[in-house]
Amino acid sequence: MRRLALPLLLTTVLATAAACAGSSPDTAAQPASPSPVATSAAPSPSPSPSPDTASYEEVCAGRTQPMTEVLTTVVLYAGFAHGNYQGGDQAMKRVLGKLKAAVADYGTYLSTALKGSTDAKLTAALTADVARLDAWSKKIAASGTDYDGKVYTTISEGWTAFSDSSSFSALCAA
């Protein structure tokens, strides 16, 4: 089962990355003046979309960092669960904590974008994804301490289900 789950997870990761790469705005179409985020030397958290001026491109581009954190942490957890990395239960417990924080950050981004959305399509997509992410977060919290069993299954199946049915990702990829 595990030999089958990891390739499926990695395929999902690559498909999600490809979808995200295709949804970023064309840099040639951006205005000549640099944005403050592009000129900053230090990494900063994703900007929250402004309530009245958030276009699809801005909101979709802003999701990249928090979604990538979730994705990276899911893949890291899978590596520990499959024995690709050493550390056992203690390492998986630490990564699980990071995953919970990353999921919360992504949920915060989606909720903030939802509050600022005036577009009906965007609002519907964000509402659906906030609900899905919240449900997945609750399943992760309730999965216990069977780190390479129930927790891994909950993370793997939950991320696959979330990324495959994400209304917001579908809207951004369109």
Compact overview of the structure:
The chain is mainly α. It is built from 8 helices and no strands.
- Rg calc: 17 Å
Strand content: under 5%
Number of strands: 0
SSE pattern, N- to C-terminal = HHHHHHHH
Q: What structural class do you assign from the helix and strand content?
A: mainly alpha
User: What gross morphology would you assign?
Assistant: elongated
Contiguous low-pLDDT stretches (5 residues minimum) are 1-11, 21-46, 48-54
Distance between the termini: 34 Å
Number of domains: 1
Overall pLDDT score: 77
Helical content (DSSP H or I, runs of 4+): over 70%
Number of helices: 8
Largest sheet: none
Model description:
This protein has helices at residues 2-23, 36-39, 56-62, 64-81, 88-116, 120-141, 147-165, 167-173. With 174 residues, it is mainly α. The protein has one domain (2-21, 47-173). Helix 1 runs antiparallel to helix 4 (64-81) and helix 6 (120-141) packs antiparallel against helix 7 (147-165). It starts with a helix and ends with a helix. Residues 1-11, 21-46 and 48-54 have low confidence and may be disordered.
